[in-house]
Structures are given as C-alpha cells and as structure tokens.
Amino acid sequence: MPATAILFAKVCFLMLAMSSLCYGHSEHHHKTISAHKHGEAEMSIAIEGEDVEIDLQGSAADIVGFEHKAHKDDEKLKLAQAKLKLQAARSIFQFEGGDCKLLEHNSDFSAVEDKRSNIADHIHTTHINIPEAKQHSDINAHYHFKCTNIDSLKSLSININEIFPAIEKTDVSWIKNQHQGHEKLGKNHSKVIFK
Q: What are the tens digits of pLDDT across the range 57-113?
C-alpha cells in the first residue's frame, strides 16, 4: 500500500476518533457534526515518516466574508484574495525544526465560486438551492509538506487567525508516530507542540 494511502487512512481515522470524543455517542441518539460555527476553524495534522499532511476547514463567512455564490465584482475579488492567502503556506505555518518544504497545496472554494456556464444552469439550480440565508458554506484547504529532518520537528505555529481575523479559534487534532493530541488555538495561543 503506498505511503500516501496509509497517511490518508490515518488522517481519516484521526478525524473519526476526534469527532467521537468531541461530539459523544449514545445508543439511542447519534449526534452528528452540525453546521459550522462562525469564528471557528478545524484543522487536522498527520505526520508519517517525512510527510506532514494538514487539512483546514473553515466557514466561508470567516474566510471570504460571505457564504453564497460570488456574483458581484467585490465578492469575486475577496474570493481571489482568500485563495492567494491560503496558497501562502509559509505565512500560515511556521515549523520549528524538521526542515519542511511545501510539496502540494489545494483548496476547495466550490461552495462560494459561481461556476454556472449559462442562464439555463442558473434557472435550474436556483430552484433546488437552499435559500442563501440558511446556507452554511465551508472552504477546505490541504497542505502536504516533506520534512527531511522529521525527528527535529518540535512544534508548528499556525497563524490562520492573523491572516483571517474572523477566525477566532482553531480546533487542531494531530497525530505523530504513536502520539496524538488536541489543541484549541486562538489569538494568545497559536502553537502546537508535538510530544
């Protein structure tokens, strides 16, 4: 099995395990992760071998300032600016040790990007969409770093709330080798220390 597939499986397992701890479980009532909370983002970090995979999920309202499809020029500009900010991984993440380099980044803005190609698509989707006032749109970003000296990786500073000030808290779950942890980051606490 390729190393990336193993790492992906570990990230999925970590997310399931953490959601079970955070949201509880009972025999008669199953809680599911509800709509996101404004001002809060979620992040998972999986470290395996020399690879560091980071997934970020945040409210579109916190990242671009709205949760509907971008139609106006100023909304499209905010969307383009947010994409550039999320691409600037060095501004968001500062590794202490590890000699880590970004290999890959991708982000999903499909919840707020208007990709309709013609009027017929607009008419068709207008009737099936949730009213904009009730929409909860998320933006997801994924980062893959390669660290040539992973044993020296001590911590990771995450500056997402400086780049997107509407994000006040970031709920971070991480796994490194046989260790895992959970941190709530905010304006006064922005560092994850790997034990």
A: 999 999 999 999 999 999 999 999 999 999 999 999 999 999 999 999 999 999 999
d(CA 44, CA 172): 6
- Name residue, tokens 């969307």: 79
Distances, alpha carbon 163 to alpha carbons 1, 142, 167, 185, in Å: 37, 16, 9, 14
Instruction: Tell the residue number behind the tokens 């949760």, with chain if given.
Output: 67
80: enclosing H helix or E strand: helix 73-87
The full set of domain ranges for the chain reads 3-193
Task: Say if residues 48 and 5 touch (Cβ distance below 8 Å).
Answer: no
Contact, 160 vs 56, CB < 8 A? yes
Q: How many CB atoms lie within 10 A of CB 149?
A: 11
Instruction: List, for residues 133-168, the tens digit of each pLDDT value.
Output: 455 689 999 999 999 999 999 999 999 999 999 999
C-alpha to C-alpha distances, 79 to 20, 62, 116, 164, nearest whole angstrom: 33, 12, 16, 13
Whole-Å CA distances, 149 to 74, 82, 96, 177: 43, 31, 11, 14
